[in-house]
Design a protein that fits this description.
Length: 292
Amino acid sequence: MITQEEKRKKLRRIEIKTRKLTNQIFSGSYHSAFKGKGISFSEVREYQFGDDVRMIDWNVTARNQKPFIKVFEEERELTVMLLIDVSQSSFFGTQTDFKNHIIAEISAVLAFSAINNNDKVGVIFFSDVVEKFIPPKKGKTHILRIISEIYDFHPKNTGTNISEALKYFNNVVKKKSIAFLVSDFMSAGYKDALSIASRKHDLIGLHIYDQREAELPDVGLMKVTDAETGREIWVDTSNKQLRDSYAKNFAESLKRTKELFGKSGAQLESIKTEDNYAVALMNMFKKRESKR
């Protein structure tokens, strides 16, 4: 069993790695891509030549017998929510790393990016139920707690239910937030919940998958186990028709997921376990920044 000292050292190594990556690569890009879009009232001041007449505060103007305008400022502080899939299907990988490891690293980098931007960060861990909710807060102590949970969380259930996670998110987070849904998206029936969440929040899906989920290798007879149900079957991977059908099913499923996100107004990025996720996130940030 891991001791508290070993856990502290492990957490420190994770913090150093993710903070370095955040500071060197993502700090400026994160701010540009996710800076506050809303505006809030700041003050009233006397009208100056060139000011927008639509901003005149007529009540204050009437009281002072000269024109005053309302001054607004951008809302800089954001609330960032991480919706993290901890179902059993994420404990899979055949290339450089398991999906759950990539999900943890990406989530940690996003959390540090948010905290460096002085944003609040919260987390929802989900399987086929909501496993745990950490309300959004600021501060190093809070972020280290989140990082610790991300890397050491042990779910009670094995399945995946994105709809339940989104419904819970819609109910508990009232203020508009930046939400990252990090999952392998091996779930169905979340169209309505996704649409509601996308209207209320700025939602980005990060689809993490392994190459062997996209295509089967030609290695003969192979036993395959469904991680979430425990069901085992034998498949003959030397059968080209079977391999083609397998690849086609994955491609069609991914296409449907992308279309679902597109129609709901949300964004979806796919990242393979062997990809450089830092590059993928940077490209996502740049894409968002160009659309602002």
